[in-house]
Amino acid sequence: MRIDKFLKVSRIIKRRSVAKEIADKGRIFINGRAAKSSTEVKPNDEVVIKFGNKTLTILVKELLDTTKKDDAERMYEITSEDYERDFRNE
């Protein structure tokens, strides 16, 4: 499954077009390698997503073509969620 579709179906990112844009800007990594929106993802892959000051690391558990809201969380496991602090305002 393409990474942009996975992020939308799993509800990590709400719109596939936004997932595509983030991937094409080099802010998504799969198993340590930069990913384009068309990069394939499979179970047991580690995905790192950089959102502004937040870095989310997930482990892909399952691939589903469509999901209900409750089933979306079965698709991945969050392994870390890091925030960069802005020291300019302190």
UniProtKB/TrEMBL annotation:
**Function, please?**
Key component of the ribosome quality control system (RQC), a ribosome-associated complex that mediates the extraction of incompletely synthesized nascent chains from stalled ribosomes and their subsequent degradation. RqcH recruits Ala-charged tRNA, and with RqcP directs the elongation of stalled nascent chains on 50S ribosomal subunits, leading to non-templated C-terminal alanine extensions (Ala tail). The Ala tail promotes nascent chain degradation. RqcP is associated with the translocation-like movement of the peptidyl-tRNA from the A-site into the P-site.
Q: Which family does it belong to?
A: Belongs to the RqcP family.
The keyword rRNA-binding belongs to this UniProt entry's keyword annotation? yes
Q: Name the GO terms of the biological process aspect.
A: rescue of stalled ribosome
Keywords carried by this UniProt record: Protein biosynthesis, RNA-binding, rRNA-binding, tRNA-binding
Q: Know the name of this protein?
A: RQC P-site tRNA stabilizing factor
State the oligomer form and interacting partners.
Answer: Associates with stalled 50S ribosomal subunits. Binds to RqcH, 23S rRNA and the P-site tRNA. Does not require RqcH for association with 50S subunits.
Q: Which PROSITE patterns match?
A: S4
A GO MF term: tRNA binding
Write down the InterPro entries for this protein, in alphabetical order. RqcP (IPR025490), S4_RNA-bd (IPR002942), S4_RNA-bd_sf (IPR036986)
- Residue intervals of the RNA-binding S4 domain: 1-64
Q: Tell me which SUPFAM superfamilies the record gives.
A: Alpha-L RNA-binding motif
